[in-house]
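Forgive a beginner's question, but would it be possible to get any protein sequence you like and the tokens describing how it folds?
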Amino acid sequence: MTTTMEAAIAAGVSFALTPEQCELRDLTREFAEREIRPRAAEYDEHQTHPADVIATAHELGLVNAHIPEEFGGAGLTVFEGMLMCEELARGCSGMATAIAANSLGSVPVVLAGSDEQRRTWLPPLLDAPILCSFALTEPDAGSDAARIKTTAERRGDEYVLNGSKMFITNAGHASWSVVFASTDRSQGHRGLSAFVVPMDSEGVSVEKHLDKMGQRSTDTSAFALTDVVVPVANRLGGEGDGFKIAMQTLDMTRPGTAASAVGVAQAAYEYSVEYAKQRVTFDVPIAMHQGVNFLIADMATETEAARLLTWQAAWMLDAGYGRKAALYSSFAKRFSADTAMKVTTDAVQVFGGYGYIKEYPVEKLMRDAKLFQIYEGTSQIQRLVIAKEIFLPRDD
């Protein structure tokens, strides 16, 4: 870690954003203030899929911004995408997840697709606000990918897929999904392969839209594959490359997830500061009580620490630090997720009884924050990754 920091210093790393990055952040913040926050409570209550918000974000170039320029995209860096994620989630992490999930779905194509596959699947995402999804998790397999039961049996120039997927973001509204299935069950996670599956294929059925505690304006669904036929041309990479593709994708998207957690924490902190100035007890604003202002001081400190760790992880990925960048992505995701949960819980405490009712925004933030400790690798899995790197480091 010292080596990384020394290299960063030698490279002249600065915490100052470029004018272009400031413009991107400001554009995203203005969009979130104008289009997301006014709808957040209503869409959360009714579990409304934010198609209108996604369409507007698409017009502004805030969806699929990571797609390389050669395929028509903006080709934003991981760092720049992270800046966007924080601002979107500061507005509402449910809608932010609905927007950002297109990156999770399409990154496997960017990373592992052939030129032909990239030209087939990526440009349509830029032409219209269509969605894609990332289908790894199953009813009995989440963190343990070796337990994936979905199979892909090759028959000539086609594969036949059978199985079930669970907790898949945007699956109920996606045009296509990257599905991870086993082409060799005897090999465990090494037998996984990745396939682009159009969601209107015969045999694909969305079984259930899940009723969630938080981030309710994001569709999270379960779907089944029954004798779904896809051509060999839809396989990303070779047989057995699926686990590697999935892990590389999650390494790339974790800074965005961490930044979204920071955005939720930032919103909770801002609401708490505003409320503490207005709420009066014992003839003074509660901001004057040490029991409250110390709580808010810790919220500010922890949120900023999470932000800086997330910035570092994103910068390292862009700089090509490989496995060390992946480790820092785990640092950032774990710390930011846990920070969001703590900060939002403290925000409810600052609001007191009002914080516990839906009329005020912080109870939603607390519900939303919990999911960051669960999806894209639980906080416990991140600790496992970190501990393994500490005690069983590899040279590659």
The domain at 2-130 is CATH 1.10.540.10 (Butyryl-Coa Dehydrogenase, subunit A; domain 1).
